[in-house]
Amino acid sequence: QVQVVESGGRSVQAGGSLTLSCAASGRITSINSMAWHRQAPGKQRELVARSTGGGVTNYASFVKGRFTISRDNDKNTATLQMSRLNPDDTAVYYCNADATTPDGWSRIYWGQGTQVTVSS
Q1: I need a labelling partner for 113 at 20 to 30 A (CA). Which of 49, 89, 92, 101 fits?
Q2: CA separation (Å) from 89 to 4, 7, 27, 101?
Q3: pLDDT tens digit string along 24-38?
């Protein structure tokens, strides 16, 4: 079993910064990618940023250079550094890990989410 846990969400003022952390643990052979998604009230979950095993990163267009995803492959962790936050960034932020387990299967595991609230 693989567990994914996010932390770091809180309330911040517009224009502020915040760093979210994600840790994957359990019976993991390797992690192919880790990604952050978010879901605002009444909206669908959307990709924010992804980091692949090869170090390639992808960002949603709305990030516009404000967010940075980074990974520690040895620790199976990922962080999302967010700056110049605005109220539209208010959402529950979810981390997922595309992990391979000892049985040879690759699956995507999700965390429970962490709330980010940006006030104007």
Answers
A1: 101
A2: 22, 16, 33, 33
A3: 999 999 999 999 999
